[in-house]
Amino acid sequence: MSRRRSPQWIVYLAGIVAAEALTMFAWSAVEDRAQPVHVAIVQSVPGYEISAGSAALLEATGYVVARRRATVGPKIAGKLRDVLVEEGMHVDDGQVIAHLDDSNALAALNYAKATLEQAQITEADQRPILERNKGLVEKRVVSPDSYESVKATYDRALTAVTVARTALAVAQQNEDDTVVKAPFSGTVTMKAAQPGEIISPVSAGAGFTRTGIATIVDMNSLEVEPDVNEALINRVRVDQSCTVTLNAYPDWQIPGHVVAVIPTAVRTKATVRVRIAIDVKDSRIFPGMGARVEFLPDAKSGTKSRPQPAGVLVPPEAIATTGNEDIVFVVRDDRVERRAVKLGERTSAGQLVLSGLSKGETVAVSGLGKLADGAEIRIEQ
Length: 381
What we know:
This protein is α+β, with helices and mostly antiparallel strands and about 375 residues long.
């Protein structure tokens, strides 16, 4: 009986295997039809991208400067033991950046501590003598003159404690002054001294003594100082909007505003210096960079600047052009939707899309030439 049933079981198992194979083939066929793409999320327009259509009242050139900048050195002269910072390093307010050789200061501190300890022992020894004589003079056992002599001895011991405590405070301060700390948070832009060099808070005549250890710049205090022709300075006002363009990044327009017009003119150049605040903090902005400033019109000038167009930003790779039409492929589940869009300017942050897309939508950024409306896709990371 078992021999007759075995062919039936073989046929049954073969059918299962064949069905699984067909299922895997079908799935692989579907996966092969899906076009692999990379995607990106549609972003809103950053506030620091300014429309290039705004007509400037005037232009001026200048340099990026730091309003908060310090060359840090010690309060006392001494030999530099170590330097704990390098150029480009960020330091926090109060962070130790260097040590002076403190052997002499430490010896003086230890001496002051010993002196104070001895003075306190002497004062402690004289205190019970004074108390005892005070009781005896009240009982008329000792004379008032004898008591006054003992009291004078105790007062001298007490004064010696006060003097020793003051000397200890001075010695402690001298020891503390051998530690050089950052006066504020910032970035080290220059390291001016090396271990072993003599450092002094005052300049030496021979020129071999350093007066500073490192230069620290607060990058949040960066401004631009352009020189404006004095014949056009009447077009500049405090709080006036402007755009700053760095020579290093000619396609990047940074918003700013006028902080102050420095009330003095440079005779040799017939210019007036203006302080411009940079409204966007960015790690690409360095002190000393050349910059061009465009002063924008406002309501006070009687001329309205063209408003910045609304829209969203996408990577430039998301845009495809067919004939005279610009299109994108919007991802919906596992398919794409072909959509025409209207483009604006191309900025450092991406391609501006004026209409046709909304913030938060997902668009394909690769394989656009192989896509069509309704095509199946497979998103790749």
